[in-house]
Structure formats: structure tokens, C-alpha cells
Amino acid sequence: MNNSRALLIVLLVVVFFIGLIIKLVDVQIVNGEELRYYAQRQQTNFETIKAERGLIYDRNNILLVYNRHDVSFYVDLRMLPEKKKPELADLFSKTFNKSRTHYLNLLKQKPKTICLEKKAPQEKAALLSNIKSSAVFNLEDPSRVYHYGSLASHVLGYVNTDYCGMNGIDKYFDKVLSGENGRRVIERNAVGDVITINEDNTIPAEPGQNIFLTIDKTYQEILETELQQSLSQYQAASAVGIIMDPNTGEILALCSLDNFDPNKYWDYSDEQRRNKAITDTYEPGSTFKAFSLAALLEEKACKEGDLVYVENGRYKFKKTYITDTHKNDYLTVKGVFEESSNIGISKLIQKIDDVVYYKYLRAFGFGNYSSIPLPGETDGRLKKPDQWSGLTKTSISYGYEISVTPIQLITAYSSLINGGKLYQPMLVKKIEDAFGNSVSEFAPKVVRNVISENTSQRMIELFKGVVENGTGKTAYSELISIGGKTGTSKIAANGKYLNGEYNSSFVGFFPAVNPKIICLVLINSPRTEYYGGKVAAPVFKKIAERIVKTEPSKFSKEKLQKSFDEQFSENWMLPQNRKISGEESHKYRFTSFKTEDESNENKMPDLTGLTTKEALKILTGIGIKYKISGSGFVTQQSIEPGTTINKNSSCNINCSDFKISGVNIY
Amino acid sequence: MKKSYKPLIAVLLFLLVSATSIILISVGIRLKYEELTRQKMELEVQLKSENTLRIKLLADQQMYTDENLIENFAKENLGMIKMNYNALRLKINQNELDEINDELKKKYE
Hints:
The structure holds two protein chains of two kinds.
Chain A: H1 2-30, H2 32-43, E1 44-49, E2 56-57, E3 63-68, E4 71-76, H3 85-96, H4 100-107, E5 113-120, H5 122-127, E6 136-140, E7 143-146, H6 153-156, H7 168-172, H8 174-178, E8 182-188, E9 194-203, E10 210-213, H9 217-233, E11 238-244, E12 251-257, H10 270-273, H11 276-279, H12 289-298, E13 307-309, E14 314-317, E15 320-323, E16 330-332, H13 333-338, H14 342-349, H15 354-363, H16 392-397, H17 406-417, E17 421-423, E18 428-432, E19 438-441, E20 446-449, H18 453-469, E21 483-493, E22 496-510, E23 517-524, H19 532-550, H20 557-571, H21 612-622, E24 625-629, E25 633-637, E26 650-656, E27 658-660, E28 663-665
Parallel strand pairs in A: 2-10, 24-26
Antiparallel strand pairs in A: 1-8, 2-3, 3-7, 4-5, 4-6, 8-9, 10-18, 11-12, 11-23, 13-16, 14-15, 17-20, 18-19, 21-22, 22-23, 25-26, 27-28
Helix pairs in contact in A: 1-2, 3-4, 9-19, 12-14
Chain B: H1 2-64, H2 67-76, H3 94-108
């Protein structure tokens, strides 16, 4: 009987199981598709996995732009019971240190989805992870962080609320930086908790690539600081500055003032956000004489020593008067350039044909895009010879009836001093993927050869003359040899020149022998002074000297050493050739300072006295192994200077700070 | 009768227990899988957050160790001076030094 009962119970359980199985078959197979559809609609949702936007570095791997993974909290008020509102307000109030009333007011709105907290940091968002309400949900809301605020803002650009690049590198390389968003399928229960994630249908996000610019953060800071000071000193409307490597076309700094903070771009006007270095054109004035003269020299139409009658400062040409600021009767061609004589260059330019002159100007890149990788570049204005009036060639020769962008001008200037090669301006050195693998590297690109090396060398001498004897004297520096050209041009608006409104500019380079840096300074509408030589040239000088002081070993040390020798011998030592008298015999005689070139690759350079950073740069350049102890200045090196080295050599460097008379020298 | 039911009951019970165990185990595994998947997602978010923090700290470190920033601070806040030129290496001729020494000795002896 017991067995029968047991059998009965077991059979009932089996029947129950069979019933379950039938139901399962019904749920899974018979009505499976329909039920699955409803379940998916109710429980699953697609969540976008936002791709990490690429980072932006400067040329020395200094991180300029990165992302912050903020979270925004939303509430669907239609699904939030009234009694839960105070509780929610309390929680948010405690987490974000805002008043409870603030959140309660937000929650009192009409039934709709509202944003309760925008862009909350991840660490704070984590504190709210225990909210169990289907009415409250959060979404990733990343922010782009421009770490140095307004620094290089016109180069870097900014992103809008949809995280799309709107200006600068962020816009030009938007596709490269943004990567590909991914997707995951999430199953949630009735209260919104995650049940599971469908791994099979998850598409991971592909992060954006990182961009390494040619910009040097230090140079950029120097340029921006000096231009900003010049704006207030000369009460100018705006200013543009560009620093470039003339031998590669790499842009080392680019600034357009007023600038803006990309982190709060909405607080600034379109005018402030516009990159005037590439979008605004202007008549370059006397800085343009360099191209006229280069064309004349290349065509062998004149020589530096040729005399030109410059009419004592006033010359009638085709019913129009051309005037000079400095009155002279005769000037050599060199003098015409140094004194920036409009009359002189007007007379000289008649020696070459209109079409030939036009071809040179086109070859220098005027009237054409420079192809800088930034959005919004304009091509300037250069009329074709068949549209020229009788005065056009003359006007162009001293920088009128032509409009250029600052980037065009500095690019063309680079070709004047680098042996005649016109380079495409470079702003990006390389692109790497998120894991540090190289995606693409950019090499300097020569567009064309415009003038010969010989003409380029002659132009360098002429530029030096401008700074040493001519209108650019205010750019002369004791620290470094400088060449350059000043420019002052009237500003035109609505078809006529404005009274008292000028563009003051200076394009200069250093060192004058083998130029390594070229810099354009353009000050728009200065009030206190207006000549390029008085306004822009001193700014250039300050920039140049600060750059040289930052990296003294990069530039020719002749002048630096000379300057220091003079100071040192005056204050501390006897001149080298002076005999020691009995009274002076207690003083040491100095014989020589080191002048060895640190960049000699086969020989070990003398690193003593250099800063650790400078020594590192040289050692990295040579490619040998090294080990550094201490910090400050190099005091000892394990490989003697002048010793032949190879790639396997290893050098130990000892560094320490100097201390003289109780004052730290760092 | 008794003898004939027992093995059947045993088989049925065994099947029931086995089926139940299999179902429970599979449910357990599924729950564990779901939990691990959730954890994975949370850890991914945490990793992203940590990575962001790392990048921010790197940017901060680069900013605060910037040579110019330190120099400016040293100049403006500590009143230090910067040596603009490379350290000097004086090459002194030993003969000249001896000459000076002799001259000094002559003078003071």
C-alpha cells in the first residue's frame, strides 16, 4: 500500500514535470517568437558604448586635450511617485552638496523627463549606483578637457554638446579623433536593474586615435604671453602670431588674440573663436617688399649695390603719389630694403614683366590655400595680370592691392630663408592609435622650389641689414642674431582706407645664420604707435629672446657666449690679452670658455653645465644609452668629451644644483 | 507488487532529482554568468574611470613639473635668479698658474 502511495506521489510529480515541460515547450517553441518579442521590447534596450575620443599632445608629448567621463542623471517624472521625490532630493543634495530645495524645485516640474544633474564626475556618480527606481537613469556624458585653458585654443578648437569637433584640430581631424561607437544589449528587470548583457550582440567601441601636434607648448605660451602684453601696451584691437620652423614648415606656435577657453566656448563670440591667422586676410604692406626683391634678384634684374634715385620721399607715378617715410635722394637696393622705401621698390619692380612677377607671387603661394590642416582657411586675393591696372604691379611691390593670410605670409617667408623651398605648413607630426601604435607619420612636404639657394642667402643678408641698420633696429638683440622685415599697412574697409587704422607687422627669424625659427607678429589697429618697427618688432625681439633663453643649446652659442664673455670679463676676470701686473696677479686669468658643438654625433659631447633636460635631448639625439643621477645641472659624465662613441655606448650622468653666495642658481 | 514498484520509484526519483539538479545547476550557472557579466560591465566602467583619472594625473604631472612654471615660481616667489648661460669651464694653463704663484711668492716673501 505504501508503495502504491509512493508510486502515486511520484507519478503526480512526474505529471507535474511533464506539465511543466509542455508549458516550457509552449513558451519556448510554440509561442516562443511572440513572447521573445514582447520580452525584448519590455526588458532589453540598446546602450551605446561611446568611443573614447582621441587625445591631443604637443610635439614633446605634453598632453593638451583629454576626456573626462562624466555622467548625467535624468528622471522620468511620469514614473516617479510623489512620496519618493523628497528622498531623491535628499540623496542628490548630499552627493552634490547642493541645496535640497534646488532638487525639489526641479522635481516639481510638469511630468516629463528632466536632467537632475548634468555632467557629474564618475566618483560622485558611483555613490548613486544604489538608486533602485525605474524613473531614474543615467547616461554617459563625456567632457573634453582642454588642460591649459585658452592655450592654443585656435589650433585645438573645441567640441559641441554632441561631442563633435567644431573648430581647429578637433574639427579637421574629427573622424580620426572620434573613433567608432560600440553597442551593447542590456536586459533589465521591472525596476531597471541590469539582469544581463547580451555578450554576443555587443559591439565594442573603437577608440579614437591620438594626435601629436608640431606645436611646442613652451613656444605657444611665450607667443601668447607676449602678444597679450602687446595688446594692452599698444591698446590694439587684435593680434596674430605664428612661429614656424622654416626648414620643415612645422608650425611651432600659432595664436590669434583675443583667444577663448574651449572648455567654455559658449561664453565667447564668433569673432573671438575665429582663427584670424588663417581666415583673415590683410594687405601686408612693406613685409611684402621681400618677395618683390627676391623676384628681382632671382631674375638678375638688380644687385644689392645698385643705386636707385628715391626722389626725396615723394614720387609721382601714373598720376599717383608714392611716398616714403624716410626722405633720401639715392639709396642702394640694400638701402631701399633696409629703409623700406616704397619709391625704391616701385621703381625696381618695373624691371620685370607683369607675368613674370605674377608667376613668382603664385609660386610663393599667394592667392592659393596653404593647405594647413585647419578648417576655414581662406586663399587671399591676388589678381591675375590681365586684371591689373597700370598701378597694380607697383602697389603689389610694396604690399598693397594684394591680400594675404598670416599663414600664407610666414610660409612664403620661410622659403625666402631656407634655400628657396616652399613647404606646406605642418601642424600634425604623427597619429597613433589608442594603444600607442603608429598609424601615420607626417614628413615635411616641399611644394616647390621658388628661388635659388644663392638668392635665399642674399635675402638673409638683406634681412639682417634691416635689423642692424634699417627699420627693424628695435628687433636687434644682444642674445641672438636676428633678421627680418617690418611692415605697416593701412586697413581698408568698405572700399576705402580707414584713417589712423594700421596693421603693424614684423616677420623675423633667428639665428640669422642657418635660421631655425621664423616668427610673424601682426598687431591690428594699435593706438599708441603704428609703425611695424615700433610696435611689432619689439614684440618679436622679446619672443626671440625668451625662446633662446629657454633652449640656449639649440641656438648658435657664438653670440650668447660673446655676450657672457663680455659681462664675465668686466665683472670677474681680466681680458684675455691683458698682461698681469704685480697688483693684479692675485686674479686668475681665464683662457677660454668651452665652445664645442654638443651635436657632434660620433664624438661624445661635453654635457657639463647643461641642464638635465638639455643633456637628455642631446643624448636622445645621439641615440646612446644613459643613466642620470640627481637633478639640476650636469656636473660629471662617465664618457669623456670628445671620445668616439657608438650606439652601444652607455653614459652615466651626475647632476646637481649649483650654489653661489647663498643664492640658488637653477 | 511491492517488489515490482520499488525499482520504478527509484528510477523515477533518480530522474526527478537528476532533472531538478540539472535545472538548478543550469539556473545557478546562468545567474552566476549574469552576475559576472554585470560585474564585468561595472568593472569596465570603473576601468574607464580609472583610466581617465590616470590621464588627468598625467596631464597634471606634466603641468606642475613644467620647467618654465618652476622657473617662474622660483623667480617670482622665491627671488631666485636663473643662470642664462651654460656653466663655464675654465681652462687654466699650468705654466701661467706657476708663473702667477712665483710672482706672488716674490711679492710677499
